Amino acid sequence: MADKDGDLTARIVGGVAALAAAYVTRKALTLAWTKAVGKEPPADPEAPDISLGEALGWAVVTGVGMEVARVLVVRTVHKRFAPRRHRDIKDLPV
């Protein structure tokens, strides 16, 4: 399988960058949750001693936060490694 126009490279680097971003984002979200709520986020949201609101709140925060980080990192990597597919109008011959 040939590396067509840097697409394979962008996918591999994007995957590795997404994993790194997930790790950093998870740490940042845990720190922010601890500062905002005053206790550690729920490790097991299904535990009976965790309130439903706290479990749902942590699920929403981590879900949205992780996905936003992943999308931003993967898009940045693809912009960097993928070739330009469309030319600017000013680059077209007259």
TrEMBL record:
**InterPro entries per record:** DUF4235
Q: TM segments?
A: 55-77
Domain of life here? Answer: Bacteria
Keyword Membrane annotated: yes
Keywords (alphabetical) are: Membrane, Transmembrane, Transmembrane helix
From the Swiss-Prot or TrEMBL record, give the protein name: Uncharacterized protein DUF4235
